[in-house]
Write a structure and sequence with these properties.
Rossmann fold, binds S-adenosylmethionine, three-stranded antiparallel β-sheet, 2 domains, Arc Repressor Mutant, subunit A, seven-stranded mixed β-sheet, 10 strands, alpha/beta
């Protein structure tokens, strides 16, 4: 995989766009099986960090391309789905570019843009979406203030909607530091509903705490059926979180599909970061040797895939019982939500327990190497004593 040149110095944007496009395509193909109309709303559209005329390195161009592709695939299978896209932008220059791009873009996706502040445009956005279409909202501002619940609530309450929200962790963490907390208390209160207490927590624990406080708060806005998960986007050259992409839905299958895409994206992220580190090193030292002058300044590390296995095995042992139980998509989604693990990691942990003879899948014939339980078939699992 080679990082397109337009994304050099914007590696995180590439990871974000890969996840957005990957998941959007899966979503459109699933929802398109039954929906007559699907709408995509980019609440903070840009263009941003791409000076080219084709703006291919932006969520604007990428979302249109994916909608067009899904529309064509669905149509070739006899499903004719109306796809509409709305782009909101406040900045004068960016809006002019957006408008010009949409005016000249030839696509069967019905596109529109609105100029102004997202918060002031919420009613118009909801009106444009209508009440019948399935809607996907992408909320990707520059900072963290705009993603607070009071700003998002009217959208979150809309039925038949999903959300991908950029939670700018690096800024939030800075605002919640001992030095800044007092000055930013108004925004922190809006964001979390409280001033987070993080005394004595390690950096990893603090990150988990702030993310789960935020996630719980926006889930409240969606309502009792809300489900959420998040993906970490790291700084390209340091092992530090830049932001989390928080995914919100009312559909358990959404959680599973989103995390499958996130897993694919984790590999993309790894490669892109290696590439970025090499380029940074080349610029600094004139050599492409990654370890030439290692400054060892990485602070927060990510959890290795193998570290997850023990907690996941315990999770499974807590879930099964000596009475056979069907494993449903709701169970799978809940396990992903509580553990933050990828679907394949959860399957792997189950696989190891099955091979040790501690759990049996009553509906599985023959040996499996992956997908040790099919949630779509509600296969039954039982604990051996
Ligand atoms: C991070 S950029 C968007 C990047 C874009 N989603 C992408 O991935 O290519 C955020 C954009 O939102 C615009 N913006 C900032 N505050 C806004 C607001 N309150 N209402 C509407 N647009 C806003 C900025 O001008 C900027 O173009």
């Amino acid at each position: 995989m080679k990082l397109p040149e337009r994304y050099h110095r914007h590696e995180q944007a590439y990871v974000k766009h890969e996840l957005l496009s990957g998941y959007l395509e899966v979503l459109l193909m699933i929802i398109g099986q039954w929906a007559k109309e699907i709408v995509y709303i980019d609440c903070f559209a840009g263009p941003w960090c791409d000076d080219s005329d084709d703006i291919e390195g932006t969520s604007i161009a990428r979302s249109i391309a994916i909608m067009q592709k899904a529309r064509d695939s669905l149509a070739s299978a006899g499903k004719y789905v109306t796809m509409r896209a709305l782009y909101i932008e406040r900045d004068d220059d960016a809006y002019t570019r957006l408008q010009n791009y949409l005016a000249t873009k030839r696509t069967a996706v019905e596109t529109q843009c609105l100029k102004g502040d997202f918060v002031e445009l919420r009613d118009q956005i909801l009106q444009w979406a209508g009440s019948r279409a399935f809607a996907f909202f992408f909320v990707d501002p520059k900072g963290y203030r705009d993603v607070a619940l009071p700003h998002l609530r009217p959208l979150l309450e809309r039925p038949q909607s999903e959300f991908l929200i950029n939670f700018m962790y690096s800024f939030v963490n800075m605002a919640n530091s001992d030095k800044n907390r007092q000055a930013f208390s108004k925004y922190l209160l809006e964001l979390f509903g409280e001033i987070p207490v993080v005394d004595g927590l390690s950096p990893v624990e603090r990150e988990d705490r702030l993310l789960s406080l935020y996630t719980d708060r926006v889930k409240d806005g969606v309502g009792p059926d809300a489900r959420a998960t998040a993906v970490k986007v790291l700084d390209p050259t340091k092992d530090r979180t830049k932001y989390h992409l928080v995914y919100l839905t009312r559909n358990p299958l959404g959680i599973i599909k989103f995390m499958e895409q996130s897993e694919r994206c984790a590999i993309v992220q790894e490669r892109v970061r290696l590439d970025a580190k090499l380029r940074a090193k080349e610029e600094r030292t004139g050599t492409g040797d990654l370890f030439a002058d290692d400054d060892g300044d990485d602070s927060v590390s990510t959890m290795a895939a193998t570290d997850f296995q023990q907690p996941l095995r315990e999770h499974w042992l807590g879930w099964v019982s000596t009475v056979p139980k069907a494993f449903t998509k709701e169970d799978f989604a809940s396990m992903i939500e509580t553990t933050g693990a990828y679907p394949s990691q959860i399957q792997m942990a189950l696989g190891s327990l099955i091979s040790e003879g501690r759990i049996q899948n009553l509906d599985s014939r023959g040996k499996r190497r992956k997908n040790f339980v099919h949630f779509s078939k509600n296969e039954r699992l039982v604990l051996f004593q």
